Amino acid sequence: MYPAGILESLGLHAHVASAVAPFAAAVALRFLLGKSRFTTWFVSLSTMWFAINVLVAPYSPQTQREIQSLWALFR
Q1: Dihedral angle of Cα 3, 8, 14, 20, to the nearest 10 degrees
Q2: Cβ count near 25 (within 10 Å)
Q3: Are 26 and 39 a contacting pair, CB within 8 Å?
Q4: Distance between CA atoms of residues 23 and 56, nearest Å
Q5: What is the mean pLDDT of residues 2-10?
Q6: Distance of CA 34 to the CA centre of its chain
Q7: Residues 61, 24, 55, CA angle at the centre, nearest 5°?
Q8: How far apart are CA 75 and CA 68, in angstroms?
Q9: Is 4's pLDDT higher than 60?
Q10: Distance of CA 67 to the CA centre of its chain
Q11: CA distance 45 to 49
């Protein structure tokens, strides 16, 4: 099993949570600890993680099926 397979087996809400949680934690640490080298790097890395998840997620087969099923609900 390759590492991306773990994320593919998760549901849609888990995908969103895995993208948003690190960013929310980074912002919370930034408010609590102030501006430091660690918080700056953590915010930067979590922003990249969020962007990668948002850009790559629609291309996974499971997400494509879920998006198609959503369109069927609105017809």
Answers
A1: 60
A2: 13
A3: yes
A4: 17
A5: 59
A6: 24
A7: 30
A8: 11
A9: no
A10: 16
A11: 6
Q: Which of 29, 57, 31 is nearest to 45 (CA)?
A: 29
Q: Tokens 């609900």 sit at which residue?
A: 73
Digit-coded pLDDT (tens) for 35-64: 889 889 999 999 888 888 777 766 667 767
Residue 20: CB partners within 8 Å, gap ≥ 6? Answer: 50
Is pLDDT of 22 > 60? yes
Closest CA to 63 of 16, 3, 1: 16
Which tokens belong to 53? 């998840």
Identify the residue whose tokens are 């430091």: 36
- At CB < 8 A and 24+ separation, what contacts does 56-60 make? 57/15, 57/19, 60/4, 60/7, 60/8
